[in-house]
TrEMBL record:
Membrane-crossing segments per the record: none
InterPro entries cross-referenced by the UniProt entry: CLEC16A/TT9, CLEC16A/TT9_N
Top-rank taxon: Eukaryota
Short name of one Pfam family: FPL
Keywords: Autophagy
Record's keyword annotation contains Ubl conjugation: no
Domain FPL: 42-192
Keyword Metal-binding listed: no
Protein's UniProt name: FPL domain-containing protein
GO process terms (BP): autophagy
């Protein structure tokens, strides 16, 4: 026992530490015969340094005196073996994560030790080295601050010319393993939160700025996949497609939250770079497709998917600039129509609709980018992500004005009706939405009585699915409360028709095989239905719109089974 205790104490002594370091310094070649010994020596050094950082400052004095970090770099170069590389990266990650003193961190980051380890020519193909490498990079990023960041970048004059920690990590941004992708994103956020203006200028300039466009382009590809699932005409059941849809939608939401985290850093150059790519590559294509301002292409979204994308983006990313931009583009056909009517009434020749639209977009640009302009100016010069709208020739056409968002609100398709109405509710109830735009939505785009009648007609339609019925009921409750309205005579008749149909549906179930379970089902479903009905607009997942579209499609595989009869009874209770 005493011998074991002596070894434990001796192992963390400065004398033993010097002995181990000298052993490592004596190794000139790493091969199969001494590989395990080298690994043991590195492990012992890291454990002792971690202990010494908290309990014995003399150990770290020796660590610096003997330039152990340089020895690690040397072993990495002569090792030429993935096992040595993986082990060293693992031990260094542990050491960096556990050292607390600023002196220790500063020394480890100095003299290009970390950059040399990062830049080492690893062979990642077909092995398990990548997770160790990314874990090491993430550990380093967790320790950087404004004082140590300068040790990891290379500067020429007033310009950053190299940042290996960040640039090498981005090479794994689209790695197949989710854990590695998550680590890269955590690392990037660590970097953004401690960077200064010089570093941000480097990060938001090509080629590193391509990371943001690649990120949004990947997000767009995922949205196209969602659209494909929604409109797939295959043998998979609706429930199977909905499950697949939910999994893919979770990935989209994860990416949106990451974009929100980047913008939330609050750095002007970074936020503007992200927003420009987001508007150019995702938001504008969705809006232009939605409002029929561009030709249909393979990369376009269907209307229901466009509505989902924009609604989810406003929910997750949000912000005054994005909210007002989306509202402004959606409202343009009606603003342009009002101006054109006024001009004709005054016999004013005026300029062309294209010029009017160009001026309108210029003003909208100023609103979007004002928050990202360090000087607070109102004019945006040069070519930017919104410029493509100016050259859109069909934007002021009669068809665009006739359709617009109202083309979906008053559609015979309940899915398009609810999807478009949900987007407008998000805009109308959002505190960041400009007062003028909000009033436009409530007074012009959403005629109060017509909206109520449209919703009641859906409820009175015996052919709609239970899910559509439930969601329409949610919209009706929210709309009546939002507008402070009561049902008129005609509306009351539609509501009573819907009520009678629901009552008759439930009454039929008393003659069905599950009639004795109706009271228990009513008690079980009551709280759930009440909770769904009271769900606020900003917390409601717009994925229901895509699920509605899938549920509208007939499922011929459903035979008259006991489970189908049970579900029919439950649905009758719900509605």
């Amino acid at each position: 026992m005493w011998r074991s205790l002596w070894r434990s104490i001796d192992r963390f002594s400065p004398q033993y530490f010097k002995y181990v370091v000298n052993e490592l310094r004596g190794i000139k070649v790493v091969d199969r015969s001494n590989r395990e010994m080298v690994i043991d020596l590195m492990q012992s050094i890291v454990e002792t340094v971690t202990y010494g950082d908290r309990h014995d400052p003399l150990i770290f004095e020796y660590f610096m005196e003997y330039q152990v970090m340089a020895e690690f770099v040397r072993v990495l170069r002569i090792g030429k073996n993935s096992r040595i590389e993986a082990t060293l990266l693992q031990y260094l990650s542990i050491m960096i994560q556990n050292i607390d003193s600023e002196q220790a961190t500063y020394y480890c980051f100095s003299n290009d030790y970390i950059n040399n380890i990062i830049a080492h020519p690893y062979k990642f193909d077909g092995g398990d080295l990548a997770p160790y490498y990314i874990s090491f990079l993430r550990a380093v990023s967790s320790k950087i601050n404004r004082d140590t960041l300068c040790l990891l970048v290379k500067v020429d004059g007033d310009n950053v010319i190299s940042f290996p920690l960040y640039s090498e990590a981005l090479k794994f941004a689209r790695h197949g393993e989710k854990m590695i992708q998550t680590a890269v994103r955590a690392l990037s956020l660590n970097v953004y939160n401690v960077s200064d203006d010089m570093v941000f200028q480097f990060l938001t300039s090509p080629p590193l700025s391509n990371y943001f466009s690649d990120l949004v382009q990947s997000l767009k590809e995922q949205c196209i996949r969602l659209d494909t699932i929604v409109h797939a005409n295959n043998e998979k059941s609706p429930q199977g497609r909905i499950k697949e849809l939910q999994l893919d939608a979770d990935k989209v939401v994860d990416d949106l939250y990451y974009l929100k985290d980047i913008i939330s850093v609050g750095e002007l150059q970074l936020s503007r770079c992200v927003m420009e790519n987001l508007l150019k590559l995702l938001v504008l294509p969705a809006l232009l497709s939605l409002l029929q301002l561009e030709e249909k292409s393979d990369s376009s979204f269907s209307a229901v998917t466009s509505l989902y994308i924009v609604s989810r983006l406003l929910q997750v990313v949000g912000g005054r600039s994005l909210i007002n931009f989306v509202a402004g583009v959606i409202l343009y056909p009606y603003l342009a129509s009002s101006k054109e009517d006024a001009a004709q009434g005054n016999n004013c020749n005026g300029t062309s609709g294209s010029d009017s639209f160009s001026r309108y977009i210029s003003k909208l640009e100023a609103v979007v980018y004002a928050d990202f302009d360090s000087e607070g100016t109102k004019n945006i010069n040069g070519e930017n992500s919104l410029g493509c709208l100016v050259g859109c020739e069909s934007c002021d056409s009669p068809s665009a004005k006739r359709n617009g968002i109202l083309g979906y609100v008053f559609s015979d398709n309940p899915t398009l009706l609810l999807s478009s109405l949900y987007l407008l509710l998000i805009l109308a109830e959002n505190e960041d939405c400009d007062d003028f735009l909000s009033r436009m939505i409530k007074s012009i785009v959403l005629p109060q009585e017509k909206i109520v009648d449209v919703l009641l007609k859906v409820l009175a339609n015996p052919q709609v699915t239970v899910l559509t019925f439930q969601q329409t009921g949610w919209f009706l409750e929210k709309w009546l409360r939002c507008q402070g309205m009561k049902l008129g005579n005609d509306s009351s008749m539609l509501f009573n028709t819907s009520y009678e149909q629901s009552r008759e549906r439930l009454q039929k179930e008393f003659d069905g095989p599950w009639f004795d379970y109706i009271p228990d089902t009513l008690r079980n479903e009551w709280e759930s239905c009440k909770k769904d009905l009271e769900e606020p607009v900003n917390r409601k997942d717009p994925l229901f719109t895509l699920e509605l579209h899938i549920n509208q499609q007939k499922d011929d595989s459903c035979a008259a089974t006991s489970s189908v009869s049970w579900q029919k009874m439950v649905d009758a209770v719900k509605v």
